[in-house]
Every structure is written in structure tokens, then in C-alpha cells.
Amino acid sequence: MSGNNTVRSMASSPLVLVVGAVLTWFIAAFLVWPNVNILMATFFPDGSFSGRAAEKLFSSQRAMKALGNSFLLAVALSITVNLVGVFIVLVTHYFRIRGSRILFLGYASTFIYGGIVLAAGYKFIYGEKGIVTSLLVRLVPGMDAGWFSGFFAVLVVMTFATTTNHMLFVANALKGIDYQTIEAARNLGASPWTVLRRIVLPMLKPTLFAVTILSFLTGLGALSAPQVLGGRDFQTITPMILTFTNSPTSRDLAALLAVILGVATMLMLAVMSRVEKGGTYFSVSKVSSELQKQDITNPVANVAVHAVAYLFFAVYTLPVVLIVFYSFADGAAIQTGQLSLANLTLDNYVRVLTQQSGLRPFIVSVVYSALAAVIAVGGLLFVARLLHKHKNWVASAFEYLLHIPWILPSALLALGLIVSYDHPSPLVGGAVLTGTLVILLIAFVTVKIPFTLRMLKASFASVNSSFEEAAAIMGAKTLYVFRRILLPLVLPAAAAITALNFNSLLDDYDTAIFLAHPLVQPLGLVIKANTDGAEGTEGIANTFVYTVLLMVITGVTMYLVYGRAGRRRTRKRKPAPPPLSQLPGPALPRDQAPGEDDATRPATAVR
Amino acid sequence: MRKLKTLVAAAVAATLLAGCGGASTPPASTGEASGATAGGSGDTLVVYTNSNGEGRGDWLAAKAAEAGFKIEIVGAGGADATNKLIAEKNNPIADVAFGLNNMYFSQIKKEGALEAYHPAWAGDVDKGLGDGETYWPLVKQAILLGYNSDKIAKDAAPKDWTDLWTKDEFKSRYERVTGMGTATAQLVFAGILSRYRDNSGDLGISDDGWKQVQQYFKNGSPAVAKTDLFARIASGDVDMGQMPSSIIADREKSFKVNVDTVMPSVGVPLAVEQIALVKGTKKKEQAQKFIDWFGSAEVQAEFAQKFNSMPVNKGAQAKANPGVVDFFAGLKQQDIDWDFVQKNMGAWVEKIELEYMT
After folding, report:
1. Residues in chain B within 8 Å Cβ distance of A479
2. Is there a contact between A438 and B222 if contact means CB atoms under 8 Å apart?
3. What does the DSSP 8-state code read for residue A421?
4. Which residue of A405, A479, A559, B27 is 20 to 30 Å from B180, comparing CA positions?
């Protein structure tokens, strides 16, 4: 394989050259040029650089504290999400746990909602007037009713809210583990704990690295959980970035903050790539067999794991149940926490669905999101494969460039596209892109590139290279190998990524507000119009209704993607447990790019 | 093999093709859009506004259709709409913008994105509320300090914003903002800071003025995301806070509280929502006709009746909700030098966010 590591060997393949040329154009036209333009305008307003932004920021106590909090949260989340995430994956897919299917459904609830409504859901339960808190206060007199706030509360909520990537990708990688290696280890006398630690977890590493980066990023971009639960002492930097992005005279501060977060993300990425490099993350037996569920032999451990698993189940499902309930209540009841069954009506749904715009924004968003999701994954499948196979400086440069959308807030990306393509530009064949339907699609595709690339690369890394070598020895050409050997192996992950991309774009506001064609407005703008402004009574009720409606769409999406893939796979290899197919309507995590921890981000507008 | 190559290349280049085509299929399948080409919007007027919530957008579109205007409303927050209009100035997409207040419009005007126009109803409005050239006033909104009148008697209530942090009984009983991004918050500070104008002070404000800001943040109860001020008043969390005049009646009913408002001796800041023609519109004549129609006494009166607003058009005031008109008649407007405020607001917001918010 050493031949693959030089630029020359890479350049000797015509296919690689073609892909490289297209990729270079795309990166130059849509990732580099627009962002260079907007950053230049921001940092060099009159053609000369001023250190103003840095000076202002570093002398602001609030900014520094908020920035520190964001980093603290990012580091803490990278650990806690992995702990909880690996635990729920093992409980649902590795250990023999009673009722693991029910548990799966509960844990999968994060697939279908997130953001401010999720944070609100937790507050309904553990907040000052929350159900659990009232109960506890009665049991433990003298308890502080405001116990669930600050760093601790934010960390707990965000940990449980962002295990989606574990449930999808780590579980997927786990299913790919060859059971024979586990059996062999056990025959040699390894305890279940040793098997887990020495065999199972190491093989999950590439995926764990990738989801750790995502958790880190989620922490850095945290927005709604700190706003709802952080209190005075734990506010993060994202709200400030958003305020400054909106103010032309302070945009340099927003850009500088975004760049600081972006650089941190890139450092994290570099560290992870280094750690990942050179490892072998697949089993080497020649005839692999399906993973079988393991018993926990120690009875005490078994009871403890069951107890924790069901406790987590309760933590995951309670907020969803309450949110669905509250979506039928009136806005005043939602905010004052006075819920009674008699007050539940369909009024909220009637109001939202009988607007003049009707279903049209839903259709527009579904079409745009689907196109963008498919283009991003389809386009990057081969690119991710090349970047995984060829480890040289050109490949690394491409890889880092493709992460640019993680650095800047989406509003800045959108503004960059406008100022770059509001006049005929040779980069796009002399076309003017503003005011067209395609510019929003371009933006949607670009914002999804980093996440798509990370997850695809991780899934290529866990593919056993002996398949590929065998095919090559028998004379298969590169593309044939890719199409017949690799593609089928990474397809489940690719489908999951497509579904996640689709779901996260459905309610996008930050990009669409600047780029949408006036006659073809997506859902995010409608949600904003109906939920924003003062958080009056209808606005808050509408937020809940839209959350539930989005849960339905994304649930259906996941079912279509997974339900079918699962069925097909089951048919092919009968004995295998249908992997993700047992979830009826699991769905739609929102993968988290910086500042995007929010399902209903538009509604979070800082007051 | 060739097939796959084409596939991969096509996927990556799909956006390019669509971009060159210009008239790519609209990703919407409903009837209305099919007539529109990707590059423009046919004979439909594109109207940007931040005033489309609570059914106002739908109402306006329907009324305009009756009057023979085909309009498409693009709703966005005040700051978003402003940034969008400025970013698009080289190749504008909007034809008309309305609902933004004078601070936002003066920013857009400064960037050269507005076209001068003299509406047919210019004589029926107080010119001083707009700029008398490019943007024209439609609706007035008072930015008020309101308090729970069931709990606090009128003579025990604060007399001015400054009482909130100088009198012990109000400390921690008022809600303070947690972000300066909204128009309402900016107008509250325009009202407070204007009183401390000092050309030798930092950003035109005396040290005493900045001390007021510091005290405001130090002694207030931070707003809670997704919980309305009225909900907090109802639950006894706080007793007072900032509120635009138009929402009060409705919220009182929803949350079953009674709120009275403070009338400081210097007066209260007014936000005036405006309408303007976008520079470079390809449907200038039609857009001008729309402005003439929308700002007319008749349409403004209907709008005011429907949404409890306070129209600026004198002809419309007679038909607006009498309670609203009376309230504004008894209101003293704070004298604010808007040029001064507009020049400095960006820097003030930045300073407040960085130094005083905790």
C-alpha cells in the first residue's frame, strides 16, 4: 500500500485527476472564494487590517468567559457523550438485555427532535416547576428547586440529546465486527470485560473518533440548552456570535470568534487524524460471521446495567412525551407550566396547517433537503474513498479545505455567496447566481460537506481491506472494486448520513433567509414567521407544533431509508438480526455543525 | 464503469449544470411557482418585511390580490431583512420593503439600496417620522416599561426606567434583556442613552450614562429563553419589563394579568415602521402603485382595525381602534436625535454586549 502514499501515484490515475479537477473547482468556487470575499470585507473594511476585533474581544470579560464555557462544554461533551453513547449502543446491540427493542426506541428519540424545544422539554421535567423537581421537593424538604441549572444541567441535557451519532454510526460499526474474533478470545479465556475492552472497542475506534469530533463541535456551538438552562453563570459564545453577525459594524467580532472556534475544531480534527492514522480497525479472519448478543455473566453487573439502561430510557422518553402533549395546549399554559388534559385541543394544529401557504413550504423544504442530501453524499462517496486511500499532503489539503463550512456561521457563508455571485462570475461560467433557485441548493450542499465527509471516511476506515486486495489480485479495476466491493459495505452508513443531512436541512433558517428564491420559500422561513418575535402565546405553541410535525416527517424519512434497507438485508441473509429495521419510525437526528444545535433555531432569536 | 464515472461526475457537477441552465426546474411542485422563471419572478412583486407574523402576511397578500397586486411576501427579522437588502444591493431581488423601523431603513439608505419615491399619501403623514425622501412612515409603536398593576399601585410604580435600578424595591423585580439583537431592546437603550449625550464621552455618551447601563444589567432579572415576559409576570417571577405597545392587550388576555405602563417625564421612544422602494427594482411602476395603495388611508385603516396598530396616516386614524388612538393621543413622545442614535447604535450594542451584559 506504500505506493498509495505519494502524490505521484495518486496523479497517475486518470479517474483521480478528473475527480480532482471537479473537486478543485467546487472548493475554489463555493468554499474558498465566497468566504475569502466575506472575510476580507469583514476584516479589511477599508483595505487595511485593524486589530480592533481582537482587542475588543480579549478585553471583554463576558466574551472570554463565554468562550471558556463553550470550550469547557466541548471537552466535557466529548467525554460524556461517548460514555452514554457507547453504553446505550452496547445495551441495545451488544449485551443481552431484556426489552432492548423498547430501549432502542426510547434512545432513538433524539433522532427526531432537538434544539430549543428539547431543552424546554427537559425544563418541564427537571426545572424549577418541573414534574420531577416538585416530586423531589416533596420527598426531600429543603431541597433547592432550582437544582437543575448551570453547567451541570446543560451538560446533562446536551449529553442525552446528542447521542444520535452513536446510535447510528457506532451501532453500525459494531454490527460489522466479526463474531469469530470474539469467540476466539473467549475460547482463550478472556472475560466479557476483556473482550469488550480489547476486541470490541478498538474496532469501533474510527467511528468513535469521528463522533467525538462531532460532540466537540456540538459543545462549541451550543446555543439553546445554555440559553434555557445555563442561568447567569453558564452562558456560551454562540448567542454573541449571532448578535454580532447581524450587526454590520460588529461583524468582524463575529467572524473572529467563529474563526477561533473553527481553528479549535481543526486542531481537534488534526489530533484525531493523527491518532487514527496507521491503526487497523477491522478483523482479519477470512470467514466472518454475524455478531451475537453477549450475556453479562456477573449477576450484580447484570442487574446494575439493566437498571441504568431503564433509567436512561426514562430520561430519553419523558421530554418527547411531554412535548407532544404540550403541542396540544395553549401557549400560556405551556409557559406557565399549567397543563391539564381538559385544555388540550387541536387548535394549534388547525392554525398552523390552515395558513395560506399551506403545505407548500413543506414540499419545497423536502425537495431542497433531499436534493442537497443526495448530492452531498453521492458526490463525496468517491472523494472520501480517495482521501482515505491516499495519505499524502495533497489529500490532506483537500480534506482540510472541505471542512471550511464548519468554521463560519451559516449566515456568513450565505452572505459570502451573495457578494461573490451577484454579478456574472467566470467561476460559474459567467452566470449570476443570486435570485436563482440553485444558490440555496449550493449552500445546502456545502454546509453538509464536512459532516458527510467525516462520517463517510470513518466508514471506509472500518472496511476490511482484504476484500479489496482479493478483488484486485483477481484483476478487478479500481472502479469495479469501488462499485461492487466497497460501496455495498459503506451503503448503510451512507444512507444514514443522507437521512441525517436531509433531516437537519428541513427547518434551516440561517441559510435560507438570505438565499431562498422569493417564490420558492422553504419551511424555515415560515416557522420563523410563526414562532418569532416576542415569545407570545401563539408563537410558542406554534414552535411545539412545528417540532411535532418535523418529528413526523423525519420519522417517516428514517423509516423509508432504514426500513427498506433493513428489509432487503434481512432477505439476503436470513439468520442476521435485522439491524436498524426494527425501529418503526426512528429518525432524524440533527447533526450538529457549529451553532446548529437547534431544531428550531429561528425561534431562539435572542431577545 | 463508464456509467459510474458519469454518475460521480454528474453528482459533483450537478450544481454547476443547474447554475448554467438558469431555468432549472423549480424544486417546488405546486402550481403557482411553475409560471415563474428562476431568474426573476414574473409580474409578482417581491415584498420584504419583518411584519408578517400573526397572520399579517397572509392578510396583506389576500387584500393586495383583491386590489390587483400579485405579491410574494418574504418574511425576515428586522436585522436579517436589513442585511439581506444591503447584501443584495448590486442585484436586488426585492421590489418593496416595509415594516422595518427608521433605524434599520437609515442603515439601508446609507448603503444606497433605496430609491427615492414620493407616495401619493405623503401629505397625510408626518414627514418627520420618516426621512421625507426614501422611506415613509406607516405604523407607530411605543416602546414602554410595563408593570403588573394587580400587584403594584400606580403611585408605588416606577416613574421612569432609571427607578428600576436606583430604587431598592424594584431591583431584581424587572426583566432585563439577555441580548441586544432585537429592535425593541435597541430602542429602549436609545431612549436611555440619549439622555446622557456627551460628545467627549465614550461613543458620545457620558460616564454617568454608561453607569446606568451597567446598573440596568446588574440589577435586573435576566430574560428566560422561550418564556414571555407576561408569563413571568403571571407566575410572579418578575413584575415589570420592556414591551411594545401593540402586544399588551393581547398578552393581558392570554396570561390573565393586568399591566399598566410607565410614562416618564421625558416621554417614551417611538418605533415607526416604514415602507420604501428598493433601488434597482425591475417593476418600479408596479411597486410604486403598491406603495400608494398600501399606505393609503383606507388600507391602513383596515390594517389597524385588524391588528390593533396605530396608523400614521391621518385619514386612517379616525377608523383605527379608538382605545389605541386615545392611548397615543395621551402619549408624550421622547425627543430623540435619531441621526445621532443611528450613527452610534452599532457601536453601543457592541459595547453593551461586551462590557455590561453578564
Report:
1. 1, 4-5
2. no
3. S
4. A405
- CB count in 10 Å sphere of residue A425: 16
Closest in B5, B14, B228 to A534, CB measured: B228
If one counts the domains in chain A, the total is 1
Domains in chain B: ranges and CATH: 42-140+271-329 (3.40.190.10), 141-269+335-356 (3.40.190.10)
Name the residue of chain A whose CA is nearest to B11's CA. Answer: A379
Virtual torsion, Cα A485, A491, A497, A501, nearest 10 deg: 110
Closest CA to B351 of B162, B258, B213: B213
- Torsions phi, psi for A315 (to 5 deg): -60, -40
**Closest residue in chain A to residue B18, using alpha carbons only:** A438
Containing domain of residue A81, as a range? 2-318+348-604
The H or E element containing residue B244 is strand B240-244
pLDDT on residue B15: 37
Asked if the structure places residue A19 within a domain, the reply is: yes
Write the pLDDT tens digit of every residue in B19-58: 333 333 334 333 333 333 333 456 899 999 988 877 888 8
d(CA B300, CA B275): 12
CATH of the domain at A101: 1.10.3720.10
Residue B302: partners with Cβ closer than 8 Å, 6 or more residues away: B63, B319
Backbone angles phi, psi at A553, to 5 degrees: -60, -50
Q: How many CB pairs under 8 A join A and B?
A: 275
Residue A538 domain-assigned (yes or no): yes
* Residue-wise DSSP of A453-485: HHHHHHHHHTS-HHHHHHHHHTT--HHHHIIII
Identify the CA nearest to A211 among candidates A246, A172, A181. A172
CA A419 to chain centre: 28
pLDDT for res A274: 85
Q: Which three cell numbers stand for residue A339?
A: 397543563
Q: Cβ atoms within 10 A of the Cβ of B3, count? A: 9
* Interacting residues of B176 by C-beta distance below 8 A, sequence separation 6+: B216, B217, B219, B220, B221, B222, B223, B241
Return the sign of the alpha-carbon dihedral for residues B334, B340, B345, B350. negative
* Residue B73, beta-bridge partner list: B47
Residues in Cβ contact with A77 at an 8 Å cutoff, skipping those fewer than 6 apart: A155, A158, A159, A162, A215, A216, A218, A219
Query: What single-letter DSSP state applies at residue B95?
Result: S
Residue A333: inside a domain, yes or no? no
- Cell 416547576 locates to A129
**Out of A243, A379, A415, closest to residue B181 by CB:** A243
Q: Do A415 and B87 touch (CB under 8 A)?
A: yes
The SS3 of residue A283 is coil
**In whole angstroms, what is the distance from residue B164 CA to residue B236 CA?**
17
Per-residue pLDDT at B159 exceeds 80: yes
Write down the ipTM of this complex.
Answer: 0.79
Q: Looking at the domain assignment, is residue A46 inside a domain?
A: yes
Sign of CA dihedral A222, A215, A90, A172: positive
Per-residue pLDDT tens digits for A462-506: 787 778 888 888 888 878 888 888 888 888 889 999 999 999 999
What is the C-alpha separation between B29 and A362, in angstroms, rounded?
A: 11
